[in-house]
Amino acid sequence: MLGHSYSHDAFLRGCKVIPGGVNSPVRAFGSVACEPVFYDRAQGSRIWDVDGNEYIDFVCSWGPMILGHGDEDVLNAVRAQMKRGVSYGAPCESELLLAEMIVELVPHVEQVRMVSSGTEATMTALRLARGFTGRDKIVKFEGNYHGHSDSLLVSAGSGVATLGIPNTPGVTRATASDTLVARYNDAQSLRRLFEAHPREIACVIVEPVCGNMGVVAPVPGFLQELRELCDEFGALLIFDEVITGFRVGLGGAQEAFGIRADLCTFGKIIGAGFPVGCIAGPERIMSSLAPEGPVYQAGTLSGNPVAMEAGLAQLHKLERLEKSEHLYANLADKAARLAEGLRELSKSRDITTQVNQFGSVLTLFFASAPVFDWTSANASNREHFARYFRCMLDEGIIIAPSQFEAVFVSYAHSDADISRFLSSAKRALEAIAK
Ligand SMILES: *Cc1c(COP(=O)(O)O)cnc(C)c1O
Prior knowledge:
With 434 residues, the chain is α/β, with parallel strands linked by helices. The chain is built from 15 helices and 14 strands.
């Protein structure tokens, strides 16, 4: 057993001054029946808590740390910028360079607006879609998470799903009634919404590969059908690529699946651990944003030069590594090794599990039937997941404290790290089988 006395004390102090002791509900360990660990430092694939325990980190700050912690190229870029100023509240060259890079790498993108979080990016994308089409309603998919703006909290994944909050207090009935909910991987459910509300739906927002009900990939043809339905009914298709962007490949899901989105949103990886998000798309739509167009959006720290330099350094490095050593295929190989290993372990232990993996992300569901939407994900055994999580923590392996999140594989994870994950998972599954 690892000692957690400093973490315990920190948590008690935290609960007095921060609701629930955490600044984002997904960091709470309530659903896995223990207390959160407070961290002190991180390097490469490792992270250390305030009690001095070392873990292999498979959360990677929920995705941004795709190169691992403390990457020297990113840190050098940050240090150099800090000497030249931390924030200007005015245009700077770094934001141009990052925008130009995104335009170059992501298909169908001509313009980019930088913001400070994924939540801001999706919130702005909805406003832009509504302003552009003159329509009020939006469609999202059950179990997809797009940040915490009012319109998007309906039937949301991630922490909302983990805590089992059906209708979030504070979201007005009027707002909620403009959000229609379809079933992921079920294009017919979207068609029914379009037919019930022709000419009312501004946009359809989707996680092209879900990461926030656990990893769930689109079935063949699903994204294509979304594209066709949006065209048929005159709605915009928004890919929320806050997780998939620069993770499923340099061109994101649009490139990986060969499907054009009208707008896309990024976050996480593009900030390399700093608070950054962006909305991106063709000029014909993006130019509706103020000051060029009438759809208002703003931010004091938008395009912050330190964050831009960090993101630029990370994207440049991803591009270099992809050219020199097939980065994305290698990340996917590591994740596939984990997924295969977990399937083998479950088979030999008579515990029914499903392992979903896509590229460098995966989820072990304690479910007896394939997981392809929120209903099938929600059928998972949360008690088993909680025991699995606690065993892994004790073994020095940190994963997200929820059945409905992803394991993130980074460039910094070594073969030995992958092997250690699997030998720890073996003991965890043995403990559950008993
Ligand atoms: C994390 C996430 C968001 C929200 O991003 P924040 O930076 O946490 O506001 C939005 N969409 C998806 C798909 C995400 O995974």
